[in-house]
Amino acid sequence: MTTWGWTATAALDRRLSRIGTIRCILSKMMRMQFSRLLAFAILVAMGAPLCAQQPAGAPQGTERQAAPAPAAAKPQSAKPEETEVWEPEPSAVTPGASNMAPPSDAIVLFDGKNLDEWVSAQDKSPAKWVVANGVLTVNKAAGNIETKRSFKNYQLHIEWKIPENITGSGQARGNSGVFLASTGPGDAGYELQVLDSYNNKTYVNGQAASIYKQNPPLVNANRKPGEWQTYDVVWTAPVFANNADGANNTDGSLKTPAYVTVFFNGVLVQNHFELKGETRYIGQPFYKKYDAAPIKLQAHGDPSEPISFRNIWVREFK
Q1: What is the pTM of this model?
Q2: What is the C-alpha to C-alpha distance for residues 5 and 103, in angstroms, rounded to an integer?
Q3: Which of 63, 106, 144, 152 is the least crowded, having the fewest Cβ atoms under 10 Å away?
Q4: Residue in 239, 241, 266, 236 with CA at minimum distance from that of residue 251
Q5: Where is pLDDT greater, at 309 or 60?
Q6: Beta strands 130-132 and 135-137: pairing type?
Q7: Three-state DSSP class for residue 260
């Protein structure tokens, strides 16, 4: 080979060596760049959830803070007199000598002396139950009796006693009833059940202190036969549509239902119960229009010994 040939070959080798060196450098640079890109991607991936937890527009690295609660409005120069009501003043009522005695505004329906406030529920003739020793005893043959007066909303106090020698069982043991509104002869109306429910099993919406066939009492607060028992009742009569509404509501449709609260021997047994209509022995209850109605006591036809009543009074309210 000539000198020129050797020289050319050496030059080519040098160029190839330089090219190899450059390729090596480029390869290293590419690997470094890829590593940086990979590291950057990892950092971005790790930081994304943290950024997502921050509200929009909040600088990264700052903690999210709850918005301050608005300051409570302070009354401006409020005075206690602004919430005081001075009139009209409630009417003064003198309480009875005991909680069972009638207050000064009560209408006494039976005070142990006579039946002047009562008539037969069947034909309005004088009531024929038995009055003796301050006690009113059911005369089953004479039928139901009711008050001469009619009432809407009222507070009622009435005491009753099952005979100590009572016989029978279930509904045939000291059965009677206080009809809080008598809407007709027989058992028409809204009945608060009277029965010996002291160790006497029957259907629960027919035991003493039930709203008959509609609602059982909250508890059984019966005393044993031979002891006097008390009902204290708050009766809110149903309201029906009529011409007084200032509209053409003359169909007698129900506007508001009846409600009753009952304390039995001082124990709450009916708590503002909403009645579904008149109480019925058979069938579903329904409402029938009436305005005001008498209070009725039932002479039930069961063969057990007749029960007794005493100390009956009522207070009307609007």
Answers
A1: 0.75
A2: 143
A3: 63
A4: 241
A5: 309
A6: antiparallel
A7: strand
211, pLDDT greater than 60: yes
- Cβ atoms within 10 Å, residue 272: 10
Whole-number Å distance between alpha carbons of 90 and 106: 16
User: Which tokens is 52 given?
Assistant: 């997502």
Per-residue tokens: 293: 């109605």
Are 192 and 231 in contact, with CB atoms under 8 Å apart? yes
**DSSP E strand boundaries for 210-258:** 228-236, 239-240, 254-256
Using alpha carbons, select from 103, 97, 104, 142 the residue that is nearest to residue 120. 142
Rounded to a whole number of angstroms, the CA Rg of the chain reads 45
Tokens of 119: 């008539």
Asked if 64 and 57 touch (Cβ cutoff 8 Å), the reply is no
- With contact defined as beta carbons under 8 Å apart, do 202 and 292 qualify? no
Taking the C-alpha atoms of residue 162 and residue 208, their distance in angstroms, rounded to an integer, is 11
What does the block give as tokens for 277?
A: 């209509």
The three-state secondary structure class of 64 is coil
- The pLDDT of residue 154: 98
Q: In which residue are the tokens 């690997």 written?
A: 31
Dump strand ranges (E) for 55-175.
107-110, 118-120, 130-132, 135-137, 145-147, 154-161
Domain boundaries, the chain: 1-54, 107-316
According to DSSP, residue 269 is labeled E
The CATH label, of 2.60.120.560, 1.10.10.10, 3.30.70.1650, 3.40.50.2300, for the domain at 107-316 is 2.60.120.560
Average pLDDT over residues 118-131: 98
